[in-house]
Task: structure prediction
Amino acid sequence: MPLTTGIEILKRAHEENYAVGAFNFNNMETLQAILEAADELEAPVIVEASEGAVKYAGADMLYHMVQALVREISVPVALHLDHGKDFGLIMTALRAGFTSVMIDASAFPFEENVRQTKRIVDIAHAMGVSVEAELGTLKGIEDNVSVDERDATLVNPQKAVTFVKETGIDYLAPAVGTSHGAFKYKGESKIDYERLKEVKKLTNMPLVLHGASGVPEELVKKAEQYGARLEGAKGVSDEVLKEAVVCGINKVNADTDLRIATVGALREVLAENPREIDPRKILGPAREAMKDVVKSRITLLGSAGKASR
Ligand code: TD4
Ligand code: CA
Ligand code: ZN
Result:
């Protein structure tokens, strides 16, 4: 199946209240793991590359790896630029053939975020490419945080409406209490459901959850068993993630979970087979471990089977 735009995939997820997994990749094994998992579960999927991934592998390499693989499978796939903070980088992704881009100007004041985002929307839409943008700061919420502090970091629902109207974006990433990486919360995982529901009601568009890795205990334990140091690792629990989807999330980003799965599998093979020097024997199990992670997330998000019919 040819590459699909992000909005084609997410429009239906928005209408039918489920979420699509968006997984970061920067190498062949990770990409194969994601696409094989999605294909086996008949799930639409988004593969995304960060600025670091583009620097590591090159936009053309990432695009052509995706093209080589989507030909073989029958589920809708979009190739997305994650957290594009730089105009030149976004142009590079557009020229390479990405079908979705994120402009992340969320660190700037609101008006500047609007200005930069609208500029990207005008260009990307002229090329038939969908656009994601972000509002608020990705920062975990703790119990002792005041209402004022929450308002200062998380998305403002009224401003979200203005933002969407003025920019014409296709999907919005509202900051609702998640953060990137393996150490998201000191206590229980949580997000601001009421704020999220308000954004959904007022914008009525596909919404994106960043920093959504689950950091599953089994994966952490396995990596630690073979020497990784991940004390205090904590992600978004399955229950919280499911509730976020009920509240209106349609694209769920994950990178950290695949990283932890990779490290656990690599450490295990290397520790158990010190004579092994064939990279395929070393990287193969990591690819399998990532595939399992992708499958369980797709199932949790409700997008399994959505590609059939
Ligand atoms: O946007 N993302 C992925 C962030 C990837 C960062 O990659 P670089 O190291 O190349 O900058 C997410 O929202 C996923 O967050 P999580 O950490 O929870 O998987
Ligand atoms: Ca940001
Ligand atoms: Zn992110």
Summary: The first strand starts at residue 20 and ends at 24.
